[in-house]
Design brief:
heterodimer; A: 113 residues; mainly beta; six-stranded mixed sheet; four-stranded antiparallel sheet; 0% helix; globular; B: 114 residues; five-stranded antiparallel sheet
Chain lengths: 113, 114
C-alpha cells in the first residue's frame, strides 16, 4: 500500500481482556517496528522484525505482550490480560534497511478501563 | 543502554522567530541519527537522517547539524510559522546488535503563535 496502515485506530477495552493490534507495512519494507507512547512519555521501543531473522523482543515490557509477523507483511501485536498501564498510543513503522528513515502508521490509541 | 535526550522539553515562539533545539546521544558506537516531526493527530514524519560527523542537512526553513564526536545534534527552524507547531523527535541508532532499532528522545514540543 501507499503507507503504513494500522487498525483499529482507537480501542477501548476492559481491564483483563486481550487485545490485538494490526500493522500492515509498506510493501517491500523488510523491517517492521512497534513502539508505544504512554501519556507524558517518549516513544518506547517494543519489538523489531527484520526479514526472516529472529525478532528483537528486548523492549516487550512483560510476557503479556507478544507479536508476530508473517514473512515481510502484516504484523499483529497482542496484549493479554490488559492492565491500565497498557493504555498508550501504539505506533508501527517500517523501513527498507538499516538506517533508512521509518515510515510510521497513524497509531492505535488503546485505553484500558 | 542508549539514552537520547532532548532540550528544551517545550518551546513557545512567535511567528517569524528563529529557534533551535538540542539532541544529545552517546557518541560511542554511533551509526545514525534521525529527526522526525510529529504533528497532532498525524504520524511522525521523517525530516533528516544523518550519519557523518559534521553532516548538515536542510529542508526549506529547517536545517540540522551533527557532531558525532561529542554526541549532539541541533535542529534549526528559520522564520517559524504556525504550521511548524509540532513535536520534534530525535532518535539514534547504535551499531552492533541494535541493527535498525531507533532509540528516541522525549521530544521537543514547539508551539508557534501567530
Amino acid at each position: 500500500g501507499a503507507g503504513v496502515s494500522q487498525s483499529p485506530s482507537n480501542k477501548v477495552t476492559e481491564k483483563g481482556k486481550d487485545v490485538e493490534l494490526r500493522c500492515d507495512p509498506i510493501s517491500g519494507h523488510t523491517a517492521l517496528y512497534w513502539y508505544r507512547q504512554r501519556l507524558g512519555q517518549g516513544l518506547e521501543f517494543l519489538i523489531y522484525f527484520q526479514g526472516n531473522s529472529a525478532p528483537d523482543k528486548s523492549g516487550l515490557p512483560s510476557d503479556r505482550f507478544s507479536a508476530e509477523r508473517t514473512g515481510e507483511s502484516v504484523s499483529t501485536l497482542t496484549i493479554q490480560r490488559t492492565q491500565q498501564e497498557d493504555s498508550a498510543v501504539y505506533l508501527c513503522a517500517s523501513s527498507t534497511q538499516r538506517g533508512t528513515p521509518y515510515t510510521f502508521g497513524s497509531g492505535t490509541r488503546l485505553t484500558v478501563v | 543502554i542508549l539514552n537520547v535526550e532532548q532540550s528544551p522539553q517545550s518551546l513557545h515562539v512567535q511567528e517569524g522567530d528563529s529557534t533551535n533545539f538540542t539532541c544529545s546521544f552517546p557518541s560511542s558506537n554511533f551509526y545514525a541519527l534521525h529527526w522526525y516531526r510529529w504533528e497532532t493527530a498525524k504520524s511522525p514524519e521523517a525530516l533528516f537522517v544523518m550519519t557523518l560527523n559534521g553532516d548538515e542537512k536542510k529542508k526549506g526553513r529547517i536545517s540540522a547539524t551533527l557532531n558525532t564526536k561529542e554526541g549532539y545534534s541541533y535542529l534549526y527552524i528559520k522564520g517559524s510559522q504556525p504550521e511548524d507547531s509540532a513535536t520534534y523527535l530525535c532518535a539514534s541508532i547504535a551499531g552492533g546488535t541494535s541493527y535498525g532499532k531507533l532509540t528516541f528522545g522525549q521530544g521537543t514540543i514547539l508551539t508557534v503563535h501567530p
